[in-house]
Amino acid sequence: MMKKIVVFILFVYFFIVPSNIAAATKQTDIASLVSITFNRDQLSEGLVNMLTGFLPEEKADNQQLKSKIDTIIDDAFIQKYLAAIVPLYDKQFTHKEIKQLLKFERSGLGVKTRAVIPEIMDQELTILVELMERHSK
User: Fold this and answer.
1) pTM for this structure?
2) How would you write the pLDDT of the chain (137 residues) with one tens digit per residue?
3) CB of 105 closer than 8 Å to CB of 39
């Protein structure tokens, strides 16, 4: 009986505990990745741009809409949002891939990419809206 208990403890110690530690480390790395790539202002501006694209011009008050969105996007909302994002990354990426993404995001090219992507996305949205308007005529 004692031998079975010792074997069980060794099994837990060498197989269960390390996998839980690895999972926690992966979760931590995902949280680091998301915190690097997440930007509250970009989220707010992106939501404003997306929502105003669906409103008639006379009803689209960007400043008022941004104010309402900024009221909703408080620290508690951000924490809930980030907590909801981590499982998405966990499901789609291995820990090795998360580490590769972290390495990229911390590199010079990653920093540059984060800096220029919002401008590119704004231009893409403008092009998309113009094409949709022309196509619908």
Assistant:
1) 0.61
2) 555 554 445 444 555 545 555 556 999 999 889 888 877 777 777 777 777 766 666 556 777 878 888 888 888 888 888 889 999 999 999 999 999 999 999 999 999 998 998 889 889 988 998 999 888 87
3) no
| Helices 95-106, 17-37: inter-axial angle, 10-degree rounding | 30
Taken in order 95, 98, 102, 103, is the CA torsion positive or negative?
Answer: positive
Tokens of 74: 């408080």
User: Where does residue 40 rank: exposed (0-12), middle (13-18), buried (19+ CB within 10 A)?
Assistant: middle
Residue 53 DSSP label: T
Encoding tokens for residue 73?
């996007």
In 3D space, the residue among 38, 48, 37 whose CA is nearest the CA of residue 70 turns out to be: 48
